[in-house]
Design brief:
The protein is an all-beta fold and 345 residues long. The protein contains one helix and 21 strands. It is globular, with a radius of gyration of 18 Å.
């Protein structure tokens, strides 16, 4: 339900039809990365603000400045906003646009992974460390060496290795790294340097992290999504190809690579046998929500699986003022996922 269709929406009726309601209403939140730490749910979202920036396809109006952490005792209990956990002013290398973060735990320490634009206008990914799941977090003085683009998501595998998935096209700049170096040409265009429709789609990236979770242990590799014939998805296949918002989890021995298709507004999934893939396209997890963006995480809580996502229903359709929600998802016996509709017919 992208932005151009909101003029006809009765938001009171839409909210009554919604399968879930905003978890917090005191601030606008988006891009929720959810984890269970110490028996509680912790959500690491973007904190949306209205900074007055002009709308454009580079995402300049997504001008977030800080992160709040949300906690819940259970999926049915009230959500608690723990206040500012990290502000851009406390990140030496970062200038602006604190976009979708993630977090993880190791040896009693909590690590917040976040993208931001450095002073040269290039998105990098940083790490901040805290003693509590809710922070505060202290940022490392430099971004991760060799990092680029947006939307870090860190997955801990069964063997204790940690992997970061990241990347996003258009304003996320992934297309500017096709040669291995940043292409600064046509700076106002989010579409410059994208593949042609009949070329393989751009891929999210994966890199194993060093044991201290502060650097890449290897060169980032492509996360390839295959179609039903075993061929990589094409750039023109906008209903299925990766755009942003990588998230990985494991269910019944399979790795699920989940992601947003961006301009076609779906949350999709693909499955594979390794954290590196390749992954075979499986279907949709979530149909389009109100607002241009769609971004999510998947978390197991007390034996059930939940999709944490956002929409713009609380702000009555303002694309950059979003609210985090949660809904249960069901895996069929064959491993496929039952598609959720965010609003009942």
């Amino acid at each position: 339900m992208p932005e151009d269709s909101i003029e006809h929406i009765d938001f009171k009726e839409l909210n009554e039809k919604a399968i879930s309601q905003p978890l917090v209403t005191n601030i606008y939140t988006a891009d929720p990365s959810a984890h269970v730490f110490e028996g509680k749910i912790y959500i690491y979202p973007s904190h949306d603000i209205d900074a007055g920036d002009a709308f454009d396809d580079l995402g300049s109006h997504f001008a977030m400045e800080d992160y709040h952490v949300i906690s819940m005792d259970s999926v049915d209990s009230p959500a608690v906003d723990h206040g500012v956990a990290l502000h851009v002013n406390d990140v030496p290398w970062a200038e602006k646009q604190m976009w979708a973060p993630d977090a993880h735990e190791k040896d009693g320490k909590y690590y917040l992974f976040f993208p931001a634009k450095a002073y040269d206008g290039i998105f990098r990914i940083g790490v901040a460390i805290g003693d509590s799941p809710v922070g505060p977090f202290k940022a490392q003085p430099e971004a991760i060496k060799g990092s680029f683009s947006i939307d870090p998501a860190v997955y801990k595998d069964d063997d204790g290795e940690y992997y970061m998935y990241f990347g996003g096209i258009w304003g996320g700049q992934l297309q500017r790294w096709r040669t291995g170096e940043f292409n600064a040409g046509q700076p106002e265009s989010p579409f410059a340097f994208l593949p042609e429709d009949n070329e393989p789609a751009l891929c999210a990236k994966i890199a194993k992290l060093t044991p201290d979770l502060l650097e890449f242990a290897e060169e980032p590799k492509d996360v390839v999504i295959l179609d039903e014939n075993g061929d990589p998805l094409l750039a023109g296949d906008t209903d299925r190809r990766f755009f942003e918002a990588a998230w990985v989890y494991k269910h019944s021995g399979k790795y699920y690579f989940t992601y947003s298709t961006g301009d076609s507004h779906f949350i999709c999934y693909a499955t594979g046998d390794s954290p590196y893939g390749p992954f075979t396209y499986g279907g949709r997890i979530l149909e389009p929500v109100v607002g241009w963006t769609t971004h999510h995480s998947v978390c197991q809580v007390e034996g059930k699986w939940y999709l944490f996502y956002h929409d713009s229903s609380l702000s009555k359709g303002v694309t950059h003022l979003r609210s985090v929600k949660v809904a249960e998802i069901i895996h069929n016996e064959d491993g496929s996922i039952q598609t959720l509709k965010p609003y009942r017919d």
